[in-house]
Amino acid sequence: MQSAGKLGARPWPSALCAALVATLAAAFALTGCGMPGAPQPPSLNLPVPVSDLSAVRAGSQVTLTWTMPTKTTDKVLLKGDIAVRICRNESSAARCNAAATLQLAPGADGSFTDTLSPALASGPPRVLTYFVELVNRKSRSAGLSNDAEVLAGQAPPAVDGLTAEMSRDGVLLRWAPAPSEAEPVAIRLVRKLLTPPAQKPGPGETAENPLAQPAEPLERSLLVEAGANHGRALDSDIRFGETYEYRAQRVARIVVNGATLELASPLSAPLRIEAEQLFPPNAPKGLAAVATAGENGASPAIDLSWQPDTEADLAGYIVYRRELAATGAGGAWQRISPTQPVVGPAYHDTNVQPGHAYAYAVSAIDQEGHESARSAEAQETVPGP
Q1: C-alpha dihedral sign at 97, 103, 105, 110
Q2: Which is nearest to 183 in space by CA: 255, 128, 247?
Q3: pLDDT at 357 > cutoff 60
Q4: pLDDT of residue 210
């Protein structure tokens, strides 16, 4: 009979022990510092939907513009061209009735011109809704862009007979009236600057001078309201010495489903004009003369003042004088101001004699050297000694 031994755990087989150690080591490794979490699913490569789509109709053409995204919905940079579906719906429903498909690079400025069919370009005004949809190589997308609405239907007639000529106050534009208009329409004049001016400082100015004239926009539009144009409009917001191009279109504003949309004719052919200053300034007004006697050793003088000229290209004024005889007859007019034009609307004449009478007149001169007619004269007598 064997004697009772010491009770204890039975030793594990070596293979089982080795497996346990390997399992614990793997567990510690998974929970160690810097270990990434669970693996992520692969990117679906869906471009971010466009959010800045806009649409403008002119005549039978609708121009769409937008900005292409640079990343996917998973914030991964897009590579290669992206398929773009142009969606056109004859309602406001958010679905894609594809009118065209094109390929564009990520981050590009997207544009597309849709020519309406005769059916869409005729008839009563009705809403036409556009979307763009970006799809991946598996024809999947992350959704439609924002909607952009225009009006289908018959557009107003095109503007004919557009002419432009220089006037004293700017460019005078004229056009032929429409043969018939069921509804009053406005006229939009689109002006393009063909000679962008270099920003040059004026006399006594520096390029850093905040009062220097700002750069002129390359393109502007002027809307002449219906019933107020009478076939003509004056563009006074121009700069002489520049060259401009004008185009015109008729614009009807129509309320559809509570929203006001525009229905515009095609733009007219471009018309070019050089904005030359061909007209002298207006003659100064309000000339007044006041004599002062020489006192305390001072010389007698006559002070002149007049209303300032507000024309943009004014260079200054020229002062004329003639001496009056006792009979009221006068001598010849003489220029008494310096060679350089007088800047302000005032002049101090000290070349006078006590007891003599004088008549004065003032003209305005622009920066191109065009001199206005003379003002109405003002007379004054210098007090005697």
Answers
A1: negative
A2: 255
A3: yes
A4: 46
362 domain-assigned: yes
State whether 179 and 269 are in the same domain. yes
Q: What is the pLDDT of residues 103-124, one digit of tens each?
A: 999 999 999 999 999 999 999 9
Residue with tokens 């991946």: 136
**Phi and psi for 373 in degrees, rounded to 5?**
-65, 160
Q: Please return the burial class of 187, using the count of CB atoms within 10 Å of its CB with bins 0-12, 13-18 and 19+.
A: buried
Residue 43 banded pLDDT, cuts 50, 70, 90: low
- Look at residue 311 and tell me if it is in a domain: yes
Q: Is residue 336 part of a domain?
A: yes
pTM (2 d.p.): 0.66
Interatomic CA distance for residues 243 and 46, integer angstroms? 48
Enumerate residues 6+ apart whose C-beta is below 8 A from 9: none
Record the tokens describing residue 96, joined without a space.
């894609």
Structural domain count, the chain: 3
pLDDT over 80 at 92, yes or no: no
Distance CA 147, CA 151 (A): 13
Element (H, E) at 85: strand 82-89
Let me know if residue 14 belongs to a domain.
no
Domain membership of residue 178 as a residue range: 163-196+216-251+264-274
Residues 68 and 107 sit within 8 Å (Cβ to Cβ): yes
H or E element: which one contains 254?
A: strand 243-256
Output the six-digit token pair for 304.
């002149």
Element of type H or E holding 26: helix 14-30
